[in-house]
Amino acid sequence: MDSDPHALSTDDLSSILQNYDETWSEVLVLKKKHDKSDLLKDKETELELLSQKLQSATFGLEHIFREMGQIYEAHKSLRKQSLGPLTEWTKYPELAADLMISGHPMELMDGDAGHVPLIWISSLLKEVIQKLGDQRVFVLSVLGVQSSGKSTMLNAMFGLQFAVSAGRCTKGAYMQLVKLSEEIKDNYKFDYILVVDTEGLRALELAGNATLHHDNELATFVVGLGNMTLINIFGENPADMQDVLQIVVQAFMRMKKVKLSPSCVFVHQNVTDITAAEKNMDGKRRLQEKLDKMAQLAAKEEVCDVECFSDVIAFDVQKDVKYFAQLWEGSPPMAPPNPGYSESVQELKSIILSKAKQSTGITLSHFNREADKDTSGQSKTFLGYFQQWFGMASTTQHVEERRPKNTVQYEEQELIRSFIKKVEKECLQAIKSKPVATRGYRSTYLQELAKNVKQKVTEFESGKKFTFKKEFTVDLSLYVFDRAEGWLLNSHKIYRDNNDALTYLDNKKNEYYNIFRSFCKGSSSAVVFGEIMCEKLKVSAVEAVCNKTGVDIAGQMMCSFPAFSETRLNLEKHVLASLAEKEDFNRFTTYIRNPRAQVEAFIKEQVKKYMFMTQKVKAQNILKKNVEEISRVISQALFEATDEVKKKKGNIEMWVEEFSRKLKPKLILDTVSCQNFSDINNFDFLKEEIEKGLKRITTEMSELSLEKVNDCRHKPDQILIDQLCNCCWERCPFCAAVCTNTLKDHSPEKHSVPFHRPSGVEGWHVRGTVDLVIDFCTTLVASDRAFYADAGSEEAFPFKQYPTAGEKYASWSITADASMLAYWKWFICHFQNELEVYYDLKFQGSGEIPQHWKNFSKKDAIESLNEMFSL
Q1: Distance from CA of residue 97 to its chain's centroid?
Q2: Fewest C-beta in 10 Å: which of 222, 318, 776, 840?
Q3: Helices 501-520 & 470-499 angle (0-180, nearest 10)
Q4: DSSP assignment letter at 91
């Protein structure tokens, strides 16, 4: 890629720089006048905003690579759970590796977020190894103050391409491979130099503690990364020098603690007189003194026994310090380059290479392996150690660590679950009120949803003893978007199909082509129109057959299938029996938390089994019968419409109108334009042409599969779900048993269920303990015990007076009796360990499982479900 991507933002950058210069000048003038008015504050604020704009205005290739890395890492994390087909994202590391091998610098650390994408870097290096082999590399990194000429020095030394344009400082860290030439390769024990350029210390964008913290992290990263680190000091200001040295020494001290021994060379740039030996000697002495002093201070902080800098790292002040001339002779931009600078660069390169001769470097595979190593103990290597310091490797958690056990913890979780369901329901209602099908999708719809979610989260948090992290709001918004996606896509497709000219033309393409082809063959208008009608009929007939078959299969199952043919309680019994047969704890938890979702899954499963396994022949016969019926309806409508038009001596428009009317309500025919067929008057001939096409349509429909029926608008499972699930789904507040009333809203009649469950199934436990409650609701409401109604509630309510605890309790009718279904006793015994892990509670103490419960088998549990009908 020859073009410079930074040119994309040149115009914007120039404009921002001009505004920045003008505003800065105004600020300087106001300061000279000692103006302390609001105008100065406003201008300084404006200047700060322009500074931020300046920082974000530049766009480079690193932003594209950064995006590729994030996409790759996101997909990679999903691939751990999914074994779907490979897609284009898997090629991203290979593309980046090709560029890196060709000499392009690659971003090692995101300068804006301060993040090291370990998965991306690891995959990138694996691709480099695959292409180059497991080469040995000598890692050279550079550290110094911002805008001190680090990138310029590296570019001049190795002919690299690190960005050095005006107004642009390196951000983050970049790595670039430099291959040793064949002439000198035999003198070294490695094949490549891996040069790492970094952003500068003491960045002006950061301030105060943020600068110090950031610089310490960066220095630790850079020093630990390199076999050798160039410490770049700019100018002769003692204060600047001291700040840098303090950070550097601290970083080397940390390397000593984890048994890493990088070497270093100090580069002192922009010195006015580099030829004065006495001055150089004095400068080195002062540098040595400062390093020793910093080493002693750092030793106290890091708790190490160190007297001088050479105790921390092998360092010879006579050989490991290099003074540099200024880059320009005079003031840029008209000043010529200083030849002395190039000489200094060459001398420094010789020093680096002479030191590198003593190093074996590390292999690329070792370099990559270290990136994935555990960060504990002695294995803390450059990336591992940096992870610990920088906190890069920790997984973001949306919920804080579990607090010590208390009586409201589980109730709080239930509150959050209920809140999520409520937000989902309200947001879906809100999005479905939008006129997407008639006016199309607008991005503001999702923006409104996100705003509503944020507002609801804030309202929910108020008065609670816990708060959500920002990630919770983001994830909840994304969850709501995902739930709304299907409806939005379908609605927008309807809008597009009805209004988009290109879609309309695309749909008509085949029809117009057939007309054109038929006319070219010399066909009459009646033949062409007959072909058009047959195309329309085919679409409508297939849809009618599939929809009718879906309805018939659902009706057949409602009449003859045991789970669907009786009462709501009967459906409940079959769902519970199915859950017991499968012995899948995850399905049970879904049923307890969201019973409707599990019942819907059961219905879909039974319909699929009915259609494709147990009653496949019967389902195919229903399909065959509907093909014959629809064909008969079309033939009858064709005969009657033709006869009617002939009697009335009507035209083609009358024929189409009559034919469409006769087909209803079995078939709905799309609108047919008669504009170019007004010359048709032989309707018997037209009928014959359509009858020929109808034979082909009937033959094709007879080959329809049941899978096609399952994809139609009237799916059998959805019809059954709509009929069987349109009832009450309220759960008992004590045990989560589902109200069995067949009416969705049966107020003022209270919720009820013939058999309740042990309250431990819903996670109820004794306050101040981890003991789950083993008692059934029907026993509890007859006891003298009490309960706390809500999370954080300090008021206890007697079970006998449970309706006084609030609306969710008062809306239930729980009869005090000794009814205990063996099914739930078996469930608790069979899944005791899973329940204890799920709730992080125990069946112990007052909640210890009675010994005789353990005698119930799965067969006993399923047979006990018949007792549900005895009441």
Answers
A1: 26
A2: 318
A3: 30
A4: G
